[in-house]
């Protein structure tokens, strides 16, 4: 079925932000007087939001609700990380090659298609990055990990975007969305599970941060580069 709404992850899907995230985590560790970590290790911690990234970097992978952490240390670390990252979020971050062309191809092939971003990154840097890198206008909505009470893979944010998209479509005398008309596009198992939890089709991006986890999540389609999105969506042969 021809898609009418595309929901994109950000880090590892639209943008290559690994270097700036890793640098920010290591700056936070140095601030706390702790040893820095290899970039590959930090990258494996990305995907569940800033708070979990910081917790994992501090050596405690447990859930944030665990009673066995020092809340003061965690909050100090998180505050430093967020402040530092906001100042350095575009030092090295770029669109993945082919992203801009792929989004334009999708828009040209299907002018009425709606697109949105749903990331576990805080919403403010997410929107600023999309704007600064020239892709903000493609998306009618951009929600982050602090936009709702829950984060991906909980479908709360996904469902909010679908509801808002349906309102927009109804305002133009078009029928509301059904799950088969929505596609979640991301580079991690978290994204694939989010789409699945929302009843949508899923596209997994193997060029992102965690291709092994993406494959294990068994998305409906796998792509090796952004230029494959239009074909995977059935918008071009």
| Assigned CATH architecture of the largest domain | 3-Layer(aba) Sandwich
**Which word captures the global form?**
globular
CATH superfamily of the largest domain: HAD superfamily/HAD-like
Number of helices: 10
In this structure, how is the largest beta sheet organized? 6 strands, parallel
Round the mean pLDDT to the nearest integer and report it.
Answer: 93
Give the count of structural domains.
2
Distance between the termini: 15 Å
List keywords for this structure.
single chain, 6-stranded parallel beta sheet, 2 domains, two-stranded antiparallel ribbon, 8 strands, 237 residues, DNA polymerase, domain 1, Rossmann fold, alpha/beta
Secondary structure elements and pairings:
Layout: E1 5-8, E2 15-16, H1 18-31, H2 39-43, H3 50-57, H4 71-88, E3 94-95, H5 99-109, E4 114-118, H6 123-132, E5 141-143, H7 156-171, E6 182-186, H8 189-197, E7 201-205, H9 211-216, E8 221-223, H10 229-232
Helix pairs in contact: 1-4, 3-4
